[in-house]
Design goal:
Elements: H1 3-20, E1 30-37, E2 42-50, H2 52-59, H3 68-76, E3 82-83, H4 84-87, H5 95-107, E4 111-116, E5 119-124, E6 132-140, H6 146-162, E7 167-173, H7 181-184, E8 192-196, E9 207-211, H8 226-242, H9 247-250, E10 258-263, E11 266-271, H10 295-299, H11 308-329
Parallel strand pairs: 6-7, 7-8
Antiparallel strand pairs: 1-2, 2-6, 3-5, 4-5, 8-9, 10-11
Helix pairs in contact: 3-5
The structure holds iron/sulfur cluster.
């Protein structure tokens, strides 16, 4: 399968996860993002299972991700006014960067700050909640051939070893045929296998579990080290801010050939000029077939807020909001 088909497949898996998580463990509130991870390992699809009440508190901090510098401030901000150097643990880098982060955090209304005797003091607005229950990594491979299977086996083995995620899956397309059992046997036994059939688009029943995953979280009283825990919160924050519909930020919905097409219960980008799902890389400013939407599109029927390109962005943005509302309202 070509890279563009893989990109389209990835979007369908993301939408499926949003509709039907968890594939074998019953419904769990979760947010979904794509192309996230660490320097060493980037996951195709990331599912963050959340505690709905804590997630509601997280949403009170706003819609944007809280990056690692800000997290250091927000997570340790005290209930009472205090000099930031007394209140926050030493970050392992110079304090002046922390001071900058304090200003930034106050500018985003994440904390309160004031100046007393020429010192910056801070106070929290609300405690930063423990909203991340579990992190699940999904590798997407619509066509599982020998070389892809070898690569994936290595990647999933890395996930099993680091246990940064609580669970790892391979999603692969079956379109009615059986998945090649010999290739699946090469995957680490801890990784789950999700057999998808999106030939009729995305529905909650468009996938079945071919192999159940194991829990990768430390067992019993063991805990992850604080660095790994912090990394997990950073990944969850990026997932929260980015979601999986943010492809419109790098693609060209303002091109006259750009469309959103319905695949079952999902919208995926489509290029009318190339008659396919374009990859994020080819649907860019350097695309030779890029053609800006005509100015009259912006004035006829799209009077104030711009043309269809802006409209697509609004549709995708609204869908992300709707999903956040849905996750938060799960009892
Ligand atoms: S022509 Fe190029 S820029 Fe326009 S929608 Fe297609 S891939 Fe994207």
């Amino acid at each position: 399968m070509t890279p563009d088909a893989e990109f389209g497949y990835e979007l369908l898996v993301c939408r499926y996860a949003e509709l039907a998580w968890h594939p074998s463990g019953g419904p769990r509130p979760a947010i979904v993002a794509r192309q996230l991870g660490t320097k060493e390992r980037r996951w195709d699809t990331v599912v963050i299972e959340v505690d709905p009440a804590a997630f509601a508190v997280r949403r009170a901090f706003g819609e944007r991700a809280i990056d690692s510098d800000l997290l250091h401030v927000v997570r340790h901000a005290p209930a009472e006014w205090s000099w930031y150097r007394d209140a926050l643990p030493h970050p392992g880098y110079p304090w002046r960067y922390v001071r900058r982060a304090v200003h930034r955090a106050a500018g985003r209304d994440l904390i309160e700050k004031r100046r007393r005797n020429n010192r910056i003091q801070l106070r929290r607005k609300r405690p930063y909640p423990d909203w991340v229950d579990r992190i699940v990594a999904v590798e997407n491979k619509p066509d599982l051939d020998r070389s892809a299977a070898d690569r994936l086996a290595d990647q999933l083995a890395h996930d099993v070893d680091t246990a940064l995620a609580d669970e790892a899956w391979l999603a692969t397309e079956t379109t009615g045929e059986r998945v090649e059992p010999a290739l699946l046997r090469e995957m680490p036994v801890e990784a789950g296998i999700l057999a998808t059939d999106f030939s009729d688009g995305v529905r909650a029943d468009a996938a079945s579990v071919a192999w159940h995953p194991s829990d990768l979280a430390p067992a019993g009283d063991e805990r992850r080290d604080p660095e790994t825990e912090t990394l997990r919160v950073e990944i969850a924050e990026r997932a929260y801010g980015k979601g999986w519909r943010s492809y419109h930020e790098t693609m060209r919905p303002d091109c006259r050939h750009f469309e959103l097409r319905r695949e079952g219960r999902s919208l995926v980008p489509h290029c009318a000029a190339k008659e396919k799902v374009p990859t994020a890389r080819e649907c860019s400013g350097s695309c030779p077939e890029f053609s800006p939407e005509p100015p009259q599109w912006r004035t006829r029927g799209w009077p104030i807020e711009g043309g269809p390109g802006k409209g697509f962005k609004r549709v995708l943005g609204r869908r992300r909001e709707r999903e956040r509302d849905r996750v938060e309202s799960v009892e």
